[in-house]
């Protein structure tokens, strides 16, 4: 039994074509998933199955959908400066559900730090404050989207300061100490839990898909009572199986692992 986990980045809007717009890709891919006889289930159910609390028949011919970074494009329809109004990821899910009467769901992995998001809004978008967290509670209660954790600050190279002891940016695999891990995992989860009125995240997606041996083999398994995560995801491009390490679960990424509807069909047809 294998379950493909598919990843999109709603900030990726270059042109209004499938290959260069993650919104258009998601809308198209939902149809492909449906046409091939698959159904979309919450990522939390994939983890339940991996950990033995869901039977194989409950997840037969399923996929899960994840979104990374957690900008406003996940939740709000926004007027892109060059590509026009973009349907939000959650509204794309809602449109599909209304049209098909099929359940659908996505997990948004959000960057926790308000200061990091404020800075990245200026350096990576257009400075319209489109990276706030006010939408998280509504999304989490929608039945269409879960809010989970994508670290404190993504150790993003556009930030002046990151929570990594040597200021190594752009490589989450450099989180190798208890202090750094505590900030990127436990502190991040605590903040998201505060915004969600006590509902702490339990799933984590590594920025850039990278994690150190320390994080995978020591911090996450040994400090679970502190960080409270159940599972963590890389971007290793393969379908998830029960043999995978719960702290190093794989995902496919749109734009890297498939760039066309035919590419997605090829991934699904292998599983």
**What is the CATH topology classification name?**
TIM Barrel
Structural class computed from helices and strand pairing: alpha/beta
Oligomer: single chain
CATH architecture: Alpha-Beta Barrel
Helix content: 25-40%
Taken together, the total number of domains comes to 1
Strand content: 5-15%
**Name of the top-level CATH class:** Alpha Beta
**Terminal Cα span:** 8 Å
Q: Could you explain the architecture of this structure?
A:
This protein has 271 residues and is α/β, with parallel strands linked by helices. The chain is built from 9 helices and 10 strands. It has helices at residues 22-35, 43-50, 89-100, 114-124, 136-140, 178-195, 213-222, 224-227, 261-269, and strands at 5-8, 39-40, 62-69, 78-80, 84-86, 106-110, 145-149, 203-205, 231-233, 252-253. Helix 2 (43-50) links the parallel strand 2 (39-40) and strand 3 (62-69). The N and C termini lie close together (8 Å). The mean pLDDT is 97.
Distinctive features:
271 residues; two-stranded antiparallel sheet; 6-stranded parallel sheet; single chain; TIM Barrel; alpha/beta; globular
Give a brief outline of the structure:
The chain has 271 residues and is an alpha/beta fold. Helix content is 34%, strand content 14%. The protein has a single domain, classed as Alpha-Beta Barrel (TIM Barrel), CATH 3.20.20.
Topology:
Layout lengths: L4 E4 L13 H14 L3 E2 L2 H8 L11 E8 L8 E3 L3 E3 L2 H12 L5 E5 L3 H11 L11 H5 L4 E5 L28 H18 L7 E3 L7 H10 L1 H4 L3 E3 L18 E2 L7 H9 L2
Parallel strand pairs: 1-3, 1-10, 2-3, 3-6, 6-7, 8-9
Antiparallel strand pairs: 4-5
Helix pairs in contact: 1-3, 1-9
